[in-house]
Amino acid sequence: MKENSEVYYILDASGLINGFIPFTKLNFTVPEISYEIKDLKSKLAMNEAMNSYYLTIVEPREKCLNKMKHIISKSGDELRLSIADIKLLSLALDFHSSGKNVVVITDDYTIQNTLKILNITFKSILTDGIVNIYNWRKFCRGCMKEYPNDYSFDECEICGTKITKKRIK
Ligand SMILES: [Zn+2]
């Protein structure tokens, strides 16, 4: 593997629901996928990742979306794919066609099959065992004291600085 091609991760809802955000800032999804995240814990994790620029929500280019629709109409998968799925695939196609090294994180078999046709790499949360690759830990920026995740106060008990979170592997 060459070191010079950074991996661009494209996250399906299953990745976001399981809290999978790789330890890199190159994580992307489409708006329609982010709307599928309904449970509070996953939503908080997603917002946290967006606020710290670990996750970016982008729209695929129109021409890639059209090309994707054409590809799935030929493969016969269009009825099994939602608009969120199609846009996620279009984003993968968009990045892939611009020469980026793309890995799609998805547990959806129809998405995986379409990615196989496109020769784009994917990983499954369930079968590749990549759940919980990282965790958040609370700590104080002032005195660096670490706090358990269930610490319920906003401020450090020692120095009064606001508690922030950092990512750990
Ligand atoms: Zn402190």
Q: Look at the structure and give the mean pLDDT.
A: 85
Order of helices and strands, N to C?
EHEHHEHHEHEHEEE
Give the total of domains: 2
CATH architecture of the largest domain: 3-Layer(aba) Sandwich
| Unreliable stretches covering 5 or more consecutive residues | none
Give a count of the beta strands, DSSP E runs of length 2 or more: 8
**What is the molecular shape?**
elongated
Characterize the largest beta sheet: strand count, sense, and whether it forms a barrel.
5 strands, parallel
Bound molecules: zinc ion
Order of adjacent strands in the largest pleated sheet: 3-2-1-4-5
Radius of gyration: 18 Å
Count of alpha/pi helices: 7
**SSE-based structural type:** alpha/beta
What is the CATH topology assignment of the largest domain?
Rossmann fold
Helix content: 25-40%
Task: Explain how this protein is built.
The chain has helices at residues 13-17, 31-35, 40-51, 62-75, 83-97, 109-118, 125-128, and strands at 7-11, 27-29, 56-57, 101-105, 121-123, 135-140, 146-147, 163-168. By secondary structure, it is of the alpha/beta class. A five-stranded parallel beta sheet has the order 3-2-1-4-5. The longest helix is centred in the middle third of the chain and has 15 residues, at 83-97. Zinc ion is lined by residues 140, 142-143, 145, 156, 158-159, 161. Zinc ion (ZN) binds next to loops.
